[in-house]
Structure formats: C-alpha cells, structure tokens
Amino acid sequence: MWNAVHISWEEAWTEHLNDCRIDPGFPSFNDYCRDNKFPITVISSGLYPLISRIMNQFLGEDKAGEIEIVCNNGKIQDRNWRIIWRDNTIYGNDKSKTLMKARETAEENTIFIFCGDGVSDISAARHADVLFARKDRDLEFYCKREGIPYIPFDTFAEIEQVTRALVEGESRIEKTETGFYKVI
Question: What is the DSSP string of the chain?
Fold first, then answer.
C-alpha cells in the first residue's frame, strides 16, 4: 500500500492530512492522566511521522512529547513513502507485546487500560485489564464474538469518566470466570 504513495510530505499535509483530528475527548483525558501521573502510550499500526505531527498539532509539543508512541515508522524521501515495520506481524506492530512489556516493570496493582477500534487492536484485547472498543468497529465485533468483556465508547470523554470512577473508588475491576476483567 505505502509503495503506491507518491506525494511529498508537504503535499500529504496540504492535500490530505490537514483535516485530521484527534478524538475530541482526548485532550481532557490526557490532562487528567498527566495530573494523576498516569502514563499514556499510543500504540498504533500507523506511521510515527504522521502520528507525532498530529499529536503535536492538537496537544502542543510539550504535552505530546510526554506521550510514548509505539508504532511503525516511515521514511519519506522526495515523493516516495516507505514503511518501516516495527515487527514481522501482519500489521507490523503486535500491540500485545507493548502491553506485556509494560506489565513486567509496572507495580503490581497497576490497571492497564487499552482503547482500540480495529483489527490491529485484537492482539492487545486479551492483555488489557479494562478494554474499551470503539462502537460499531472491528474490535467491538471481535470482542462480542469471542466473549471478551469490553466497554463500548464513542469518545475519550467516556474513557475518562470510567477512569475517574476507578481512581475515585466508585468502580472497581473484577476478574470473570473467563479470566478477563470487567468494570463493576
């Protein structure tokens, strides 16, 4: 797919990407996590140059710079784009590996929240304590089919609401008989 892209970086932004927007609830969610010293990691099958620029554009360089981005990379030279895969899996970035690695160094009571929407998020779905799946997207369909507990969402405002409830003790997570967790 990326071999078929033949536009310059400037053309990509001017003609296609200037209209990109992040989820309207994400800046508030990010601020809440920053205030509580909860790290955010963006795990994506996208390209670092694109994701980084979009995050900088909407959050500012200081806030965006605090967010770890784990994704594929890309090299853009003249009018040619080449993807540099993070690993050899189908989407070039097995997101479950990032979650498993984070668990190795996290405190025992750390709750891992994962938010996703597409098929590239399926590998991570089984490794989150709290899983959010965007409504009517592939990850939600997968979770329904496989019986994986998840919370459907439209915007990060909903994710922030559940996170706040967990932090304030209004909700908690409980392990189900399937081995997955659910928020109660």
Answer: -GGG----HHHHIIIIITT----TTHHHHHHHHHHTT---EEEEEEEHHHHHHHHHHHH-HHHHHTSEEEEEEEEEETTEEEEE-SSSSTTS--HHHHHHHHHHHS-TTPPPEEEE-SGGGHHHHTT-SEEEEETTSHHHHHHHHHT---EEESSHHHHHHHHHHHHTTS--EEE-TTS-EEE-
Q: What is the pTM of this model?
A: 0.92
Render pLDDT for 145-179 as a digit per residue (tens, 0 to 9).
Answer: 999 999 999 999 999 999 999 999 999 999 888 77
Q: Provide the residue type at 71 as one letter.
A: C
* Amino acid (one-letter) located at 156: F
